[in-house]
Structure formats: C-alpha cells, structure tokens
Write a sequence for this structure.
C-alpha cells in the first residue's frame, strides 16, 4: 500500500525526471524533499528501492535512476483490476473505505474509479452507514468478468497545478533562476498555479 510519504517521493522523482527524459539521483531527491538527517534519507532510499522493484525506476548506476512512465499506466491497470474484483465479490452495502481496505488501493483512487463505475451503470447507491455512502454491484457488473476501464485515465483535478509546482522545483534545483529564460518559466508556472487557486477562491466567495 502506498503511503502519503511514498506518493510524495514518487511525485518528486516524476517531476525531476521530466517524464523520464532526465536521470535523478538520491542526492537530488534528498534536496527536493528537504531530507537532512540520515533516518529521513533512509526512508527515501527504501521508497526508491520499492519503485525499482515495481519497475517505476530503472537503476542506471549506484544512486542514479531513470523514471519509467510506461510502468505507471500498467500499475494503474493492476490497481483497477484489484478494485473491480473486490466490487464483484462484495456483498451489497460496501463503502469506498471497505474497498480500499480490502484491495490496499488508496481511498482517493477507489473513490474516483467507483464514481465512474456508478456513472456507467456498474454500481448503485445502497443506503448509508453513518456519513458513508454505500453501494452495491448491479446486474451489469455481475455479467462483466473483465475489468472495465474508463475511456481515458482518471484525472487528478490538480494535475496541471502539480506539474507546474514540479516544474518550479526542477527549475530551482537544476537551473539558475537569475537567467532570463528561467525567470520567465518561473513566472509562467507561478501564474498557472495562482490562476487556479484565485479562481477557486472567487467561486467560494460568491457561493
């Protein structure tokens, strides 16, 4: 099961590698995550080794790695398969948390996949358990043995802003921000992030 710390390490490595075009090192990841003591560095090394085992990273040499973006899509497919098997075998009245606990897939990923399943007629609402919405598999789900996949990747609503934040991190760590070209890129990415959150704030303010 991926922890929030593991997700942070993965996200930083993905950003620093620019989609697998550049290699990353332990030292660069330590700096990006602000790891100054040995226990924190050891935790990052463990996460990196896990990514190597999952083939998300290829070890170029000792302490140097290359990100493998193709493995990410494959892993997402495997996660959806686990959730789908749990959906088909669960008794009516299961929640997102129930599926996340059984499959060891993150709650957010389970929730987004189940929302799509409900929209496509594979799930129906089945009451509440306290504040938690419950679901049941439909006849359509029972007849569908193979895992149904969304027509496109389930999007993170903040994906564009995360890319901008990672690009900022890369610019500050790998380049000279005083260079005019780099300064322009810093401003561009800052504006992209600010525009999103200013818009969110205005929507909240106007109810």
């Amino acid at each position: 099961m991926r922890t929030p710390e593991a997700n942070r390490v993965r996200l930083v490595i993905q950003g620093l590698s620019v989609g697998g075009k550049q290699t990353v090192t332990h030292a660069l990841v330590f700096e990006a995550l602000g790891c100054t003591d040995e226990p924190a560095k050891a935790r990052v090394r463990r996460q990196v080794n896990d990514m190597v085992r999952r083939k998300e990273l290829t070890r170029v040499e000792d302490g140097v790695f290359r990100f493998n973006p193709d493995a990410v899509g494959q892993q997402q497919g495997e996660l959806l398969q686990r959730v789908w098997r749990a959906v088909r075998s669960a008794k009516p009245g299961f929640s997102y948390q129930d599926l996340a606990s059984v499959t060891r897939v993150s709650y957010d990923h389970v929730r987004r996949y189940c929302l799509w399943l409900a929209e496509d007629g594979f799930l129906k609402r089945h009451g509440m358990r306290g504040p938690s919405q419950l679901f049941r598999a439909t006849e359509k789900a029972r007849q569908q043995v193979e895992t149904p996949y969304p027509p496109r990747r389930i999007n993170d609503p903040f994906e564009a802003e995360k890319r901008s934040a990672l690009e900022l991190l890369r610019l500050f760590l790998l380049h000279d921000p005083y260079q005019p070209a780099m300064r322009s890129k810093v401003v561009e990415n800052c504006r992209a992030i600010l525009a999103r959150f200013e818009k969110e704030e205005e929507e909240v303010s106007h109810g």
